[in-house]
Amino acid sequence: MLVSAVVSVVISALILVSLLGETFTFVKGLAETGTWSSLWADGWFPRRGQYSVATLLMGSLIVTLVAMAVAIPLGLAGAVYLSEYARPSVRRLLKPALETLAGIPSVVLGVFALTFISPEVVQRFFEAPQANLAAAGLGVGILTIPLVASVSEDAMRSVPAALREASYGLGARKATTCVRVVLPAALSGLVAALILAVSRALGETMVVAIAAGGSAGALFTADPLRPGTTMTAAMIAQAGGTDQVKGDALTFQSLFFVGTLLFGITLSLNLVAGRFVRRFRNVY
Amino acid sequence: MALSQIGIGSDVAADITRARLTGKRADVSGTAFRTALQIGLSLSVIVLVVLLADVLTGGWSVLTTRLGEFLTAPLRANPAQAGIAQSLAGTLWTGMVVVLLSFPIGIGAAIYLEEYAPQNRLTRFIEVNVRNLAGVPSVVYGILGFTIFVQWSGGFTGGRTALAGGLTLACLVLPIVIITSSEAIRSVPRAIREGGYGVGATQWEIIRTFVLPYAAPGILTGTVLSLARALGEAAPLILVGAVQGRLASQDPIWDPAWLTERFTAMPVTVADWATRPEEGFVANTAAAIVVLLAIVLLFNLGSILLRNRYERKRHR
């Protein structure tokens, strides 16, 4: 059984090996041909040798910001209600609903973002093409609601009842108790929920690949109403070329370079979130 | 009504006491806060309902007029004749690999970490490692699968096959299986173990006859949820080389020959069809989503119901 536990370590090692090998080739290729400038090109067009990392990072940032604007208020409201207000019978009904939302595959949300959210929500209020970063961000946000809700609910439920009772005893109303006593007491758990949600949104792939319209590459844009691409979607867009490497010599390797970037960012976020969770566990 | 109950919540008691002491009844901002929370929560549920209604109405024409053909026909370029038989086969066989590999290995790892592992640096390292693996984005697992299972061990897997896809998904869900199974094993009361030792049972006997049966519902819930997660993943399979477009193999769905052939899977087909320009694929996409959701949500709902049932039994 030790062997099966060690399998997970082997998987981690293999992830690193498979990412770093070709990433090294990519960086070495750039160095040899002296084409570092392709990293600051006008857009992400790997088949033409334009690897503007800024385009991908900005796309990921926009999608994540839009997603958080949806997931944090809705997820947090759900968590506070389920943890502080809902009667057990209501909880038993609503919690499975949130869990069902968590179980919906991301491709489904991608199609929903492209065929419903974009025309019915984004295009109704703004001038935008059907595939745009905002619609993708809203889709990713919906996917992250359950994560925010469940992590922050766990955090609030582990705040001792004595804190609430003391607050009531001092004459605080229920809403005051929630906002000024329970939420601050659960703060590090809520921060963990936030960081995990950001990490999840950054790593979300299919919604952006389907709904953001960047499958053929994208120009740099900071406008959420324009088509764009993210680190994840750029990787999927290139996967069709894994057997038939066309275009620039380093096209194939750039896939691994982006993978390494994404892996590094999400891993650091997860490590920070883990630290917050542990701090929270130590207090209560 | 609240007063007549025995053991009312301290929040209700606080409200009643405050109303008595101050003579004020209404708590306007409190009600506003509560309503805002309810609106937030209902929005999430409404989104879920709208999504389900949207795909159901979108796929209705296909599901009602040619469901049989849709489920049994291969992927075709003509939307009126296209079906999802090959995608279902791919989902079935990749899922089979996940069940056969990640479940035993994951549960084994959880038993080791919770019952046998000494408190040393290796154990702590493995635990931290598992937690971090669970947070790695699924596309990155696609890179793992492509490099290791397609390129390095292509001689064994046959390259971009359902076996390689299944192995990739197995790696993807392994940390989730380990974490949920560990939690289930950790929740087994100490007294149960001590009772076993009291009658002279060995550690393995205790694990087999007391710990595992007690933790079984929790482990089952976790594993079924992770299987549902695996079956809904498209990104890693696309990187491993799942076929977007038509597929040569027309073996019957239960034929294990699928394992060593080029493959596709339900979520990959959904992603592929969603970006087709032809009008007819819109309804096909929605219908394929309904089938995919039926599979995934069936597993999800099943495990949630299972958990609720056992939880209620325990508390009795």
Task: Quickly list its features.
heterodimer, A: 284 residues, MetI-like fold, 3 strands, B: 316 residues, mainly alpha, 2 domains, 13 helices
Short characterization:
The complex is a heterodimer of chains A (284) and B (316). Chain A is mostly helical and 284 residues long.
What does this structure look like?
Chain A is mainly alpha-helical and 284 residues long. Chain A has helices at 2-33, 53-85, 88-103, 106-125, 133-157, 161-169, 174-185, 187-203, 206-211, 231-239, 251-283; strands at 43-45, 50-51, 218-219. Chain A has two domains: 1-34; 42-283, MetI-like fold (Orthogonal Bundle), CATH 1.10.3720. A three-stranded antiparallel beta sheet of chain A has the order 2-1-3. Chain B is an all-alpha fold and 316 residues long. Chain B folds into two domains: 10-65; 69-315, Orthogonal Bundle (MetI-like fold), CATH 1.10.3720.10. Chain B is built from 13 helices and no strands. In chain B, helix 4 (85-116) runs antiparallel to helix 10 (203-231). Chain B is flat. The model of chain B is unreliable at 1-5 (pLDDT under 50). At the A-B interface, helix 1, helix 2, helix 3, helix 4 and helix 5 of A face helix 1, helix 2, helix 4, helix 5 and helix 6 of B.
Count every beta strand of chain A, where a strand is a DSSP E run of 2 or more residues: 3
Which assembly state applies to the chains in this document?
heterodimer
User: What is the annotated CATH architecture of the largest domain in chain B?
Assistant: Orthogonal Bundle
Average pLDDT over all residues of chain B = 89
Given as residue ranges, the uncertain stretches of chain A (5+ residues, pLDDT < 50) are 241-246
Strand order of the largest sheet of chain A: 2-1-3
Q: Residue share in helices of chain A?
A: over 70%
Main interface by residue count: A-B, 94 and 93 residues
Q: Could you tell me how far the N terminus lies from the C terminus of chain A, measured between alpha carbons in angstroms?
A: 33 Å
Topology-level CATH name of the largest domain in chain B: MetI-like fold
| Strand content range of chain A | under 5%
- Which structural class do you get from the secondary structure elements of chain B? mainly alpha
As residue ranges, the low-confidence spans of chain B are 1-5
Order of helices and strands of chain B: HHHHHHHHHHHHH
Principal-axes shape call of chain A: globular
The main pleated sheet of chain B reads as: none
What's the average pLDDT of chain A? 89
Terminal Cα span of chain B: 26 Å
Q: Globular, elongated, flat, extended or rod-shaped: what is the shape of chain B? A: flat
